[in-house]
Write a structure and sequence with these properties.
Nucleoside Triphosphate Pyrophosphohydrolase, alpha+beta, single chain
Protein backbone atom coordinates (compact mmCIF):
# COMPACT_ATOMS: atom_id res chain seq x y z
CA UNK A 1 0.00 0.00 0.00
CA UNK A 2 1.25 3.45 -0.93
CA UNK A 3 0.65 6.41 1.36
CA UNK A 4 -0.50 9.52 -0.50
CA UNK A 5 -1.29 12.89 1.07
CA UNK A 6 -3.80 15.43 -0.16
CA UNK A 7 -4.52 19.03 0.76
CA UNK A 8 -7.94 20.59 1.07
CA UNK A 9 -6.66 24.14 0.73
CA UNK A 10 -9.28 26.67 1.83
CA UNK A 11 -9.08 30.39 1.04
CA UNK A 12 -10.51 33.39 2.89
CA UNK A 13 -13.79 33.07 0.95
CA UNK A 14 -14.24 29.43 2.09
CA UNK A 15 -13.44 28.19 -1.41
CA UNK A 16 -11.45 24.98 -1.89
CA UNK A 17 -8.59 24.45 -4.33
CA UNK A 18 -9.05 21.50 -6.69
CA UNK A 19 -6.69 20.32 -9.41
CA UNK A 20 -7.25 18.35 -12.58
CA UNK A 21 -4.82 15.58 -13.43
CA UNK A 22 -3.06 16.02 -16.78
CA UNK A 23 -3.63 13.73 -19.77
CA UNK A 24 -0.22 12.10 -19.18
CA UNK A 25 -0.93 11.16 -15.53
CA UNK A 26 -2.71 8.04 -14.36
CA UNK A 27 -6.43 8.76 -14.04
CA UNK A 28 -6.16 11.42 -16.77
CA UNK A 29 -8.32 14.53 -16.41
CA UNK A 30 -9.88 13.38 -13.13
CA UNK A 31 -10.14 16.01 -10.39
CA UNK A 32 -8.35 15.65 -7.08
CA UNK A 33 -7.11 17.45 -4.04
CA UNK A 34 -3.40 18.11 -4.72
CA UNK A 35 -0.72 16.19 -2.88
CA UNK A 36 1.57 13.24 -3.44
CA UNK A 37 3.37 10.13 -2.28
CA UNK A 38 5.00 9.99 1.13
CA UNK A 39 8.72 9.26 0.82
CA UNK A 40 10.56 6.88 3.18
CA UNK A 41 11.35 8.55 6.53
CA UNK A 42 9.00 11.45 5.73
CA UNK A 43 5.95 12.42 7.78
CA UNK A 44 2.67 12.92 5.91
CA UNK A 45 2.71 16.58 6.96
CA UNK A 46 6.23 17.17 5.60
CA UNK A 47 5.28 15.32 2.42
CA UNK A 48 2.25 17.51 1.84
CA UNK A 49 4.13 20.77 2.31
CA UNK A 50 6.88 19.53 -0.06
CA UNK A 51 4.46 18.22 -2.70
CA UNK A 52 2.34 21.39 -2.77
CA UNK A 53 5.47 23.50 -3.20
CA UNK A 54 6.77 21.19 -5.97
CA UNK A 55 3.47 20.85 -7.86
CA UNK A 56 1.85 24.28 -7.35
CA UNK A 57 4.69 26.56 -6.16
CA UNK A 58 2.73 27.80 -3.15
CA UNK A 59 3.23 27.67 0.61
CA UNK A 60 0.54 26.17 2.84
CA UNK A 61 -0.12 25.81 6.55
CA UNK A 62 -1.65 22.52 7.69
CA UNK A 63 -4.66 23.08 9.92
CA UNK A 64 -6.22 19.68 10.65
CA UNK A 65 -5.88 16.00 9.74
CA UNK A 66 -9.03 14.32 8.43
CA UNK A 67 -9.98 10.64 8.21
CA UNK A 68 -7.81 8.58 5.88
CA UNK A 69 -9.28 6.62 2.99
CA UNK A 70 -7.90 3.33 1.73
CA UNK A 71 -8.78 2.80 -1.91
CA UNK A 72 -8.04 -0.20 -4.09
CA UNK A 73 -7.47 0.62 -7.74
CA UNK A 74 -6.97 -2.29 -10.19
CA UNK A 75 -3.16 -1.95 -10.11
CA UNK A 76 -2.46 -0.19 -6.79
CA UNK A 77 -3.81 0.30 -3.28
CA UNK A 78 -3.40 3.73 -1.71
CA UNK A 79 -3.97 5.18 1.71
CA UNK A 80 -5.11 8.74 1.02
CA UNK A 81 -4.21 11.00 3.95
CA UNK A 82 -6.10 14.33 3.82
CA UNK A 83 -5.47 17.56 5.66
CA UNK A 84 -7.31 20.86 5.65
CA UNK A 85 -4.85 23.65 4.91
CA UNK A 86 -4.57 27.38 4.51
CA UNK A 87 -2.86 29.09 1.56
CA UNK A 88 -0.04 31.17 3.05
CA UNK A 89 1.80 32.65 0.07
CA UNK A 90 2.60 32.37 -3.60
CA UNK A 91 0.66 32.33 -6.84
CA UNK A 92 -0.35 28.95 -8.21
CA UNK A 93 1.90 27.71 -10.98
CA UNK A 94 0.78 24.36 -12.39
CA UNK A 95 3.77 22.08 -12.93
CA UNK A 96 1.97 18.74 -13.34
CA UNK A 97 -1.77 19.35 -13.48
CA UNK A 98 -3.92 20.44 -16.43
CA UNK A 99 -6.08 22.95 -14.55
CA UNK A 100 -7.07 24.27 -11.12
CA UNK A 101 -10.18 25.89 -9.72
CA UNK A 102 -11.26 27.54 -6.48
CA UNK A 103 -14.76 26.22 -5.74
CA UNK A 104 -17.37 26.61 -3.03
CA UNK A 105 -18.44 23.43 -1.27
CA UNK A 106 -21.71 23.16 -3.18
CA UNK A 107 -19.76 23.06 -6.48
CA UNK A 108 -17.43 20.19 -5.56
CA UNK A 109 -19.76 17.29 -6.31
CA UNK A 110 -20.21 18.40 -9.93
CA UNK A 111 -16.61 17.39 -10.78
CA UNK A 112 -15.40 14.05 -12.14
CA UNK A 113 -13.26 13.05 -9.14
CA UNK A 114 -10.57 10.39 -8.86
CA UNK A 115 -12.26 7.51 -7.02
CA UNK A 116 -10.01 7.70 -3.94
CA UNK A 117 -10.91 11.38 -3.44
CA UNK A 118 -14.71 10.88 -3.46
CA UNK A 119 -14.98 9.81 0.22
CA UNK A 120 -12.67 12.69 1.17
CA UNK A 121 -14.94 15.18 -0.66
CA UNK A 122 -18.02 13.75 1.05
CA UNK A 123 -16.38 13.76 4.49
CA UNK A 124 -15.23 17.36 4.04
CA UNK A 125 -18.69 18.51 2.93
CA UNK A 126 -20.37 16.75 5.85
CA UNK A 127 -17.91 17.94 8.51
CA UNK A 128 -16.56 21.30 7.30
CA UNK A 129 -18.46 23.39 9.83
CA UNK A 130 -17.56 21.24 12.86
Amino acid sequence: MIQVTCAIIIDSQERVLVTQRSKSMSLPLKWEFPGGKVEPDETPEACLIREIKEELDIEIQIKKALLNNIHIYPNITIQLIPFTCKHISGDILLKEHAEFKWLHGNELLALDWADADVPIVNYYLTNRWK
